[in-house]
Structure formats: C-alpha cells, structure tokens
Design goal:
Distance between the termini: 26 Å
Low-confidence stretches: 4-29, 236-252, 700-710
Shape: elongated
Strand content: 5-15%
Radius of gyration: 37 Å
Length: about 750
C-alpha cells in the first residue's frame, strides 16, 4: 500500500465526534464503537477498494459487514495487509501502536519527530483505507492484532513504566520520587503517574539527567534503540555498571547504573537484568539521542538513478528472447509426451528427469525448471492421475494452433499471476532434500506480488531506461519492508532472471534491466490479442529464406515466417537461436520429415523455394538417400482392430456412414484399425446393428490392443489453479461491495 497522491476526502475526515449538549447530539454522527461500525459508514467505492487491496477478505465472500470486519481483524489477514505497507506507513503504524492515549495524528507526528502533519495524515488515511486503523480522529485505534504483529517490544521499546517498575516495593517507589525531587504519593499507581508526567516534560527530565554522574548517558545509549533489556555485568576495568549491593544505601552515588536504578529511570526486570521503560525511551529518543521514535525515519523512498538506453534496441532484444520461449516450451512438452517423467509420491517430477530434460534442451537445469513450471502455470502440462506421469494436457494442442506471439502472450499472462518460484527447484528443503520441479514446495506466497512490484518499479522509469540493481532492491524493500531480507533478495534475483528469460526485460550490463514495451502491456493487463500485438511490434519483419551451407547447416538471418519456421524445424534440428537461428540437417531430422508425410519431392521443392542460393549437393544426396530407405517397413498407430473372415463384409462395414465416427481404416484385406479403445469400438459397432466378437492374441476373448506410438495426453488431472487478485473497479469487487453496503 504505497503512499500515493490523494485528495482531501481520501479518508482523513473525522470518523465521529465526542461533542456534548443536545444540539451537538442532534447533528453529530453516531459514535462508532467497532471496526464494523466504521465499515458501515463507508461508501461502496471505498469498500470495493478495501476488497481489492486485501483480496483474502473477499474469498469466500463475507455475508455481512460484521463478517467482513471480523475477517479483516484476524491475525493472518492483518499480517498480510501489513506486509503490503511501505516503510514510512509501517513506521507510522508502529508509532500509533506505542503512542500513549489518546492517539491522534498530531501526537503521532510529534512522537515521530516531524514538524509537518501532512505526511503522517496521508499514512493514517492509508491505514484507515486498509482497515488496520479505526476510530475518531481524536482517539485512533490500531487493530489489536496489528499491535501484536509488531511484537512485544516494537521498535526496540521496552514495557511501560508500570510494568518495568513492577518489582519495586511501595517504599521503593516513594524512594524513586524522593530522589527525582517529586512529591510523595499515596500509592504505587500514582507514583508511576508522577514519573510518567516527569518523562513527558522535556525541560524537567533534561534537568534530572543534567545532574547525573558521568557515564549515565553511555548506559542509556546502550538500551535506547533496543533491545531495551541489559544484563548486569560484574565489575571490570571497562564497565563499572553494577547493581547496587543489597545493603547499599538508597542515596549512594555508586555507578551510573546504581544512579539510574535508584530513580526508576531503569527498572530491575530480574536479578541480573535491567530494562529501560518505554516512557523514558520516548524522551531519550526525541530529546537526547535522536529526532524521534525511529533512529532512521523512512519518510522518503530511496532514490532510483536513471540510466538511459535506446528503447527500440531494448525492445528488439527482449522480443527476440520472448519469441523463442514458445518454441522451447514446445520442445519440452513434445519430449515429455513421448518420454514422460513419473509423478513422485510427494508430488512433482524427479530431479533426474529434470537433468535429462535439460540435456535434451541443451539448457541449464535452472532454465529447464523454469520452462516446466511455466508450462504448468499455463495449464499445458499436468500430473495424469490414471498413468502416474506428467503429460501435456489437451490445452496444449489448442495452444499449438495459436500464432507464436499469441502463444507467448498466454505464457506471459500465466507467469505474472502464478505463485511458482522456479528458482527453488534443486535447493534444499526443510529436510535438506532437493526441491523437486512441479512440487508443492516450489510455490511461494510472496512471488506473485513481487513480480508486479518489480516490473512496476521498472515501469516507473522512462522507456528504454534502467537503474542499478542495488537501487532497485533498496526501493523494493522500502515498498515492502516486512518482505525484505536474504530470502527475499534471492527471490528478487530469481524473478528478474525469469523476466529476462521470458523476454519481458532486456538485460543490461550493470543494470537491473529494461522493461520492454510488451512487458509494460502485460503489467497493464492488456487482453491477450493486444499483448501479442505489442510483442509483434518489437520483432523485425519475418523472413522467408535461409542460407544453406555445404556443411549441412542453414542460417535464418532473422525470425522466419511461422509456416516456414515450422517446416524448417521439421526438416532440421535447431542448433542455436537468437538474432539468427542456425539449423542442422541430419539423417534423423530428414527422416522425421518423411515420417510426418513429406516426400522427397516435397523437401526438394521447399528447400529450393526458401534457399537464397543453390542447394548444396550434399544436402540433395542426404534427402535422396533417406528417401530410398524410408518406408520399407511401416508402423502405424492403433489401439484396436477389426478382423473379418470375408473382406467383402469389411468393405460393406467401412462404407456404412453410421460408423464413420469410429475412425476405422483398412490396412490389409479383411483388417481395419481404429484409435478408439476396444470397449468403445465394440460398443459403437453393436449400437449400429453389428455383432462383433472380441478376441485375444490367441484368437479368443477381448480384441487385440496394438501398442500406440502417438503423443500421449493427460486425460484425468487436477488443473493448476491460482487465486487471481481482483482489480480495483472490477465488476465482481464492486458487486460484492454493493451487497455488503446494502446488507449493513
């Protein structure tokens, strides 16, 4: 919830008043006694913005405002909302949580050491809009679970005076007052109140410390910024801070620690531990050692230097990487269709299968894991429950029918909203075992929002501009301070690497990278067609010719037209890709084309049409040689067959239009095959008036099942699901907000 420019009506108005008198009671708003009361006063638009900013509140839809308030106050939901606060707004929340009552914007501003109220008022408005803060302006109330999420000693502060001095006797409390120059009180509670009033009066408290012996400020400085607890050391040459002996006179000068304990400025927490009370720390931080509650106030985001590059060059480089991704995914899934990895008992695929796939793709294991996770997020591969293998899904076939730019758009859109952190693959888990690809351990609760945050920071830069990576990390961690640290730093590196692989960001030496134009379109949530068009504008005009060389290689000087690229990938193997793609013709690659139904004449004609020069003799010989040997032995695909003793009876059956959907085809006199399972073929024939008999290999029983070599697809699987964050202003969010507002 990064602070943004807001108008005067964005939540800073008073939420109720405490005026007295009949006239005031008749005109003032009713007092709001709970968060639910406050939410009931919100307009529909503000409720909708809350549901969009905290999507966990809308799933499942709450039945009423009371249910919404209860869910918004739960510990897990509050922690998620606090994770989205920027550094300054979090510091304001910390100040609100520890500030003595009554808590107001003015008192919070003073506690933070600021002189201008506007910034704090904006942060308070953000906290109100996030439902982390409620109450009238003269008595602001952070949620209880927000206070608890900040810990027992927020901002390094110790307990209040009443708790810090709880181990002191009534006589000891009066001794504190005497040595501080305060009048005696009738009980310990009022004694604590007198000391608190002294700490809240800077000139008087400053006068007390001015009379302290040398070394007192050094002792206080060790505790003032936290942790507020300190152990009592034995006397040494370096540190004379020791506890007063049991028989020491109360007014004894002694060490600085004795002087502080004797006046209640420090409290004895245990026999060997002292504590700095919260009220004393407030005074010290504000008037002695700093400027306010925080040692370093993060009121302004860290600067992001701008390094300008050519936007067209960056878009072209990112586009070249992007257009290669669908082909790499296709290679991976085609390989898994013919040799699928098994599903582990714990879920996921094996590390050995990943290594085999990486070798097949000639790619690092990290990139192979990314491609597999990308295909999974897009719904193109799944664990087949029937076979126990990871197989392409039927959606993969539909995806293959799309143009390359549109294929990329589907992958990029799936990546942006998925929770899969492919960088975790291969790293040790909690049991020190390698995290398997496609396993549950790959999911990360923070990765989805981090992707948007990272791309969003790059999107703030001018087109073609980048910034040093450390500056980008500092800005990201300012935006989400509760999501910082070494683990998140590693997640930033993984996310940026995936964005480069996906072609959203162009890499730059010494910089975080340049967000391409089609990357900006993705971040804006453009439709798939518009996203594909944005990528198309970054690509050079496709070419339809290749340079074929005598060493049986061919070079495409640019991106090939889709139909030419498909045919070249069928005839030759891709050795390298980039600005120019290098193909190599081999016996196996040419045979692959023949297996797909091409003939020698087809290959010669295609190569002649799309070659810049005359076809090298070595390639012509290769095509003709493979053609002479190809097809002498034929193997087809079938699942079941029909055998008839009389070929005429089979001919009559195949001519029957009623069974055209069974896919029967004759392969020999009296024999036809089908790709339907035997039981479906039997049922289909019997439904249409035939009386077939099943048989086994020995001629009796069930029909013979012929092994199939066709590409396998997952038929029974749990599709990948992601909880999509509702966008502000979307119909679903606004509709739910309207229902809640109407129900009250």
């Amino acid at each position: 919830m990064t602070r943004a420019n807001r108008g005067p009506a964005a939540g800073g108005a008073s939420q109720g008043s405490d005026t007295s008198g009949p006239a005031a009671a008749a005109t003032s708003a009713p007092r709001r006694r709970s968060l639910a009361d406050e939410l009931r006063s919100w307009p529909v638009e503000r409720l909708a913005n809350l549901l969009a900013a905290r999507p966990d509140l809308a799933v499942p839809p709450p039945a009423s405002i009371a249910a919404l308030a209860e869910r918004a106050s739960q510990r897990a939901s509050v922690a998620l909302a606090m994770d989205r606060l920027d550094a300054f707004t979090l510091q304001v929340l910390q100040a609100l949580a520890v500030s003595p009552e009554p808590v107001t914007a003015a008192s919070t501003t003073e506690l933070l050491g600021l002189s201008v109220l506007d910034e704090v008022a904006d942060a308070i408005a953000d906290l109100r809009d996030a439902a982390l803060l409620w109450g009238p302006d003269e008595a602001l109330r952070p949620l209880v679970n927000a206070r608890e999420a900040l810990g027992e000693n927020p901002v390094g502060l110790g307990p209040p005076l009443a708790s810090a001095l709880n181990n002191s006797s009534p006589a000891g409390m009066q001794g504190f007052l005497h040595r501080l120059g305060l009048p005696a009180t009738p009980d310990p509670v009022s004694a604590v109140g007198s000391i608190s009033a002294l700490a809240a009066d800077p000139p008087r408290m400053r006068a007390v410390l001015d009379s302290a012996p040398s070394g007192v400020e050094a002792v206080l400085e060790k505790l003032v910024w936290g942790p507020p607890f300190g152990r009592i050391n034995q006397p040494s040459a370096e540190d004379e801070a020791v506890a007063p002996a049991p028989d020491a006179a109360p007014d004894a000068g002694g060490s600085p620690l004795e002087w502080l304990l004797a006046r209640g400025i420090l409290g004895r927490w245990t026999d060997d531990t002292v504590v700095l009370p919260r009220e004393i720390a407030f005074f010290l931080r504000r008037h002695v050692f700093g400027t306010g509650l925080h040692r370093d106030l993060a009121s302004d985001p860290p600067p992001v230097p701008v390094v300008q590059h050519d936007a067209r060059t960056a878009d072209a480089a990112a586009g070249a990487a992007a257009i290669a991704v669908p082909r790499r995914v296709e290679e991976l899934l085609d390989a898994w269709a013919s040799g699928p990895p098994g599903v582990l008992r714990s879920g996921g695929a094996g590390i050995r299968d990943l290594r085999r796939t990486a070798a097949l793709l000639d790619a690092p294991e990290e990139e192979a894991a990314f491609l597999a996770e990308l295909a999974y997020a897009a719904g193109l591969v799944a664990a087949d429950l029937a076979s126990g293998f990871w197989l392409p899904t039927p959606a993969y076939d539909r995806w293959l029918d799309l143009p390359p730019e549109r294929r990329w758009a589907e992958l990029a859109a799936a990546w942006l909203v998925s929770d899969r952190a492919a960088g975790r693959v291969g790293s040790p888990d909690e049991r020190n075992r390698q995290v398997a690809p496609l396993s549950a351990e790959v999911a990360s609760w923070a990765v989805t929002e981090l992707r948007r945050d990272l791309l969003g920071e790059l999107d703030r830069l001018p087109p073609g501009a980048t910034t040093p990576l450390p500056a980008l990390v500092d800005r990201l961690f300012w935006e989400r301070p509760r999501r910082s640290g070494p683990a998140m730093r590693q997640l930033v590196d993984w996310t940026l690497r995936e964005a480069v692989w996906l072609g959203l960001v162009a890499p730059v030496r010494g910089g975080a990278g340049i967000l391409a134009a089609h990357g900006r379109a993705l971040l804006l949530g453009r439709p798939r067609e518009a996203l594909a068009a944005a990528l198309g504008r970054a690509l050079p005009e496709p070419v339809r010719h290749v340079l074929i060389q005598g060493d049986l290689t061919a070079i495409a000087p640019g991106p090939l037209a889709p139909e030419v690229a498909r045919e070249m990938a069928l005839i030759a193997d891709i050795e390298s890709s980039g600005a120019a793609t290098v193909y190599r013709f081999t016996t196996a690659s040419v045979r692959r084309a023949f297996d797909a139904g091409r003939g020698a004449a087809d290959l010669h004609a295609f190569l002649a049409e799309h070659s810049l020069h005359e076809i090298p003799q070595a390639l012509s010989y290769l095509v003709d040689d493979v053609a002479r040997r190809h097809g002498r032995v034929r193997v087809g695909s079938a699942v079941s067959y029909v055998r008839a003793d009389n070929d005429a009876a089979l001919t009559e059956m195949l001519a029957d239009r009623r069974i055209g959907g069974l896919g029967l085809r004759r392969i020999a006199p009296g024999v036809a095959v089908s790709e339907l399972p035997p039981e479906e073929l039997l049922e289909g024939l019997r439904t249409n008036g035939y009386a077939p008999m099943g048989e086994n290999e020995d001629g009796s029983g069930a029909p013979v099942v012929v092994a199939t070599s066709r590409a396998r697809r997952a038929t029974s699987f749990h599709p990948y699901a992601v909880q999509r964050q509702a966008l502000p202003g979307s119909a679903a969010v606004v509709g739910l907000a309207q229902e809640l507002a109407a129900g009250g």
